[in-house]
Amino acid sequence: MRKASQNAWGLPLPPGPPRMPLVGNLFQMPQVDPWIVYNDWAKKYGDITYLEVLGQRIVVLNSVKSIANILEKKAVNTSERLWMPVFDLLKLDWSFPFMNYTPFWKAHRKHFHQHLGPMQMEIYRPIIEDQTLKYLRALVKNPHDFRLQTRSWLGLTFMRLSYGINDAQWNENLIVKAQAVNQGFSEAAIAGRYLVNSIPLLRHVPAWVPGAGWRKRLEAVGELSREVSRVPFKQAKEQVDLGKVDEDISLVRRLVDDLPPETHPSYEERATIARNVAAIGYIAGADTTLSALYGLIIALAMHPEVMAKAQNEMDTVVGADRLPQPEDYERLPFVQAVVKESTRWHTVGPFALPHVSKKDEVYEGYFIPAGTAFLPNTWAVMHDPERFPDPMSFKPERYLKDGKLNKELLDPEFGIFGYGRRMCPGRFLAKDIILAHFAMCMISLFNIKPGRDEHGKEIPLEYKVASEVICTPAPYQVEVRPRSAKHATLIG
Ligand code: HEM
């Protein structure tokens, strides 16, 4: 095999911390807040930092410039994915976020976009509004249970929107399984957690071999993965075929309506794509969106002065006689600034998902071999003190200029949804429909305060995240109560 440092141009690899033979930088890989460590390394080694872990080449991209140049301008070459051996055991081959940049992946994106693109959002509004109203009522009844209620609302909304089955029990059963798949993935993806990622041959060790209990656990998650990608689609399709459907239009109904006749040569492939597209909504969308909502609420609870200002804007623009409507959002610059600032301040995916190159690449005089995994340090971009002075503070005002949104400041939408051709295709649903609607309802209808202990003393709020692929604010307690009896009446 050609060595990483050999290339026809005789160019050097990008700079990075010194590597040990065979293991490379394995023992220097940060386990806690890696985004901060990489950002510090960037000060020493420069904007792009080269690392190697057990033969896997990694380039961390620490600025808007390198991310845009490598993941966007060179996207044709840098849109592959890293397939980890553990994914075989988790049976994630149906999941298009992990597929390489192939025509099959493109077909998934195309169908996803056709049904969940910006022009399609109105179609799903009835389901979202119905589920949201149920959620707001549940919050009124359970003022201390914000996190659980929110998780349940999002899960039920995604499942109903995907499969069109308006049966809470059916959806909850499915959520438990899909959640186990997400959990299995998050754990398995942590570098160094499973030896099988470093020694792929281990995936052939049978589960009954003593000491191979890890394999049994992963295989059990793999079974669930197969089940959530197939069974609900089959059941929902049967309902559609029998004409027994939720009166509100779901993703499956639209995907099934679009399928060619079963006798058509492309039927099998199209049905597989439809199944995979329906199944990805919850898997890719629930935890990410939930993390963003948890981030927004802890930010508001920790900053009562921001909440008061946002409520004031809601009162002026919407008033207290009706629920906020989607079209109100445009007329709420401060609320929009709050949402933008919360997604900057709490960066849900600090490294997006790794992009991988297909061919050798040359960037600013450095050689980057084929197969390199690029980690865009979105956290560093969102906390760059040059762009966002005092970046650790939550200051929505930074997005405003003369009372309007400041278009000169980098919009967190560059970054939080990833980059180039792999950019999150669920962003329209996440930001325009769920996040915007949620923010307006929570701000206008509720007061959000830190929770209290058994002596009635406020429990101080602390914003902390674990170092995972999707960073969710660590458990915190808040009290969410309607602002007045009139506000409670609006919820019904
Ligand atoms: C606030 C909520 C969300 C955030 C922050 C988020 C963020 C991301 C990020 C960072 C990526 C990786 C992009 C890259 O590799 O450059 C991604 C990919 C993806 N997201 Fe989202 N996402 C959110 C919500 C959703 C929702 C609601 C859905 C589905 C309905 C969804 C579906 C997907 C899919 C299918 C991919 C894989 C795209 C591909 O590899 O081609 N996401 N998302």
Question: What can you see in these coordinates?
Answer:
This protein has 492 residues and is of the alpha+beta class. It has 2 domains: 1-79 and 358-383, Uridine Diphospho-n-acetylenolpyruvylglucosamine Reductase, domain 2; 94-349 and 396-490, Cytochrome p450 (Orthogonal Bundle). The chain is built from 16 helices and 10 strands. It has helices at residues 34-45, 64-73, 85-89, 103-116, 121-141, 146-163, 168-189, 213-241, 251-258, 267-302, 304-317, 333-345, 378-382, 413-416, 427-445, 485-491, and strands at residues 48-53, 56-61, 355-356, 361-363, 366-368, 373-376, 400-401, 404-405, 446-450, 478-482. α10 (267-302) crosses α12 (333-345). The longest helix has 36 residues, at 267-302. The chain is globular. The structure holds protoporphyrin IX containing FE. Protoporphyrin IX containing FE binds next to α4, α10 and α15.
Condensed summary:
InterPro entries: Cyt_P450 (IPR001128), Cyt_P450_CS (IPR017972), Cyt_P450_E_grp-I (IPR002401), Cyt_P450_sf (IPR036396), Cytochrome_P450_fung (IPR050364). It is built from 16 helices and 10 strands. The strands form 4 sheets. Strands 1-2-6-3 form a 4-stranded mixed β-sheet. A two-stranded antiparallel sheet has the order 4-5. Strands 7-8 form a two-stranded antiparallel ribbon.
